[in-house]
Amino acid sequence: MSATRDEMLTIPQVAKEIGVPRSTFYRWRQLKKGPKAIKLPNGAVRIRRSDLERWIETLEEAA
User: Fold this and answer.
1) 22-30 vs 11-18: helix axis angle to the nearest 10?
2) How far apart are CA 24 and CA 61, in angstroms?
3) Which of 4, 5, 10, 56 is the most exposed place for a label (fewest CB within 10 A)?
4) d(CA 61, CA 42)
């Protein structure tokens, strides 16, 4: 019984993966247009890979 853990990505990893500057990604977060994110107790922000993929799918549907 092996549970696969959802990879937790940093904002620089996500920005690089989708090909946008970090500043653009931060602006999308401010405008509530980015993927769902998790803010850790130390202030760091992480995005689950599954949330990133789900967000990308919604963009495909809107295109």
Assistant:
1) 110
2) 21
3) 4
4) 35
The total number of residues shown for the chain amounts to: 63
Three-state DSSP class for 9? Answer: strand
DSSP 36-57: --EE-TTS-EEEEHHHHHHHHH
Q: Which residue has the tokens 């990893």?
A: 13
pLDDT string in tens for the chain (63-residue length): 445 688 999 999 999 999 999 999 999 999 999 999 999 999 999 999 999 999 999 998 776
pTM of the model: 0.83
- CA–CA gap between residue 60 and residue 50 (Å, rounded): 15
